[in-house]
Amino acid sequence: QKEVEQNSGPLSVPEGAIASLNCTYSDRGSQSFFWYRQYSGKSPELIMSIYSNGDKEDGRFTAQLNKASQYVSLLIRDSQPSDSATYLCAVRENNQGGKLIFGQGTELSVKP
Amino acid sequence: DGGITQSPKYLFRKEGQNVTLSCEQNLNHDAMYWYRQDPGQGLRLIYYSQIVNDFQKGDIAEGYSVSREKKESFPLTVTSAQKNPTAFYLCASTLLSGSNTGELFFGEGSRLTVL
């Protein structure tokens, strides 16, 4: 069974700090990785996708991928209370069809 | 506006009843998916479809059924055989080719409660 693991949290950071969210995955052949943000009671929304080793930056968000270590992370700089949500890591299976496998999510709380 | 529309947003069901959740997309996406989310949990795949008139079971298909008669539509029926159907149901879609392959876009979800 292919797995995606995240710390469930909650992760609490003060406003303005860097929040670091981590994810490991078991399918060594996976090529596509995604971070979704989910506010309480709402559906997930895509915030970052990454396909190559290294860093990918988009505004205050940076995704980091290390395929050798089977590790993907999301950094949120200058965290704001509005960033408080559950962050879901998703990994696309490396086969025909390529379903997304989701981690259980990390709850982030940004304190003013 | 392009997007994914799920209905109803809230649904109450008595035990023993079948219910059908609607999912429609106008994004011209190839593949459509149904996920279930329980409180404090990640998303678990129920069924998915990559092409009209074809679909595959996900990890928790027992007690559910789907159809894909049109590219835009992928309804999910929660049958009486599903023992614990109370959950948040999410429909999603994606392209299967192109630069953003695999990026799932979600509807707003349907919250089903069994009374």
Topology:
The complex is a heterodimer of chains A (112) and B (115).
Chain A lengths: L3 E3 L4 E4 L4 E7 L6 E7 L6 E6 L3 E5 L2 E6 L4 E6 L8 E8 L7 E3 L3 E6 L1
Parallel strand pairs in A: 2-11
Antiparallel strand pairs in A: 1-3, 3-8, 4-5, 4-9, 6-7, 7-8, 9-10, 9-11
Chain B lengths: L3 E4 L2 E4 L5 E7 L5 E7 L5 E9 L2 E4 L6 E3 L9 E3 L8 E8 L10 E2 L3 E5 L1
Describe this entry's structure for a reader.
The complex is a heterodimer of chains A (112) and B (115). Chain A has strands spanning 4-6, 11-14, 19-25, 32-38, 45-50, 54-58, 61-66, 71-76, 85-92, 100-102, 106-111. Chain A is mainly β and 112 residues long. In chain A, the strands form 2 sheets. In chain A, strands 2, 4, 5, 9, 10 and 11 form a 6-stranded mixed beta sheet that branches. Chain A starts with a strand and ends with a strand. Chain B is mainly beta and 115 residues long. Chain B is globular. The mean pLDDT of chain B is 92. The interface between A and B is medium-sized, with 21 and 23 residues.
Summarize the structure.
The complex is a heterodimer of chains A (about 110) and B (about 120). Chain A is mainly beta. Chain A is built from no helices and eleven strands.
Provide the β-strand percentage band of chain B. over 45%
The pLDDT mean of chain B sits at 92
Task: Give the structural class of chain A.
Answer: mainly beta
Structural class of chain B: mainly beta
C-alpha termini separation of chain A? 40 Å
Keywords, separated by commas or semicolons:
heterodimer; A: 112 residues; mainly beta; 6-stranded mixed β-sheet; 11 strands; globular; B: 115 residues; 7-stranded mixed β-sheet; 4-stranded antiparallel β-sheet; 0% helix
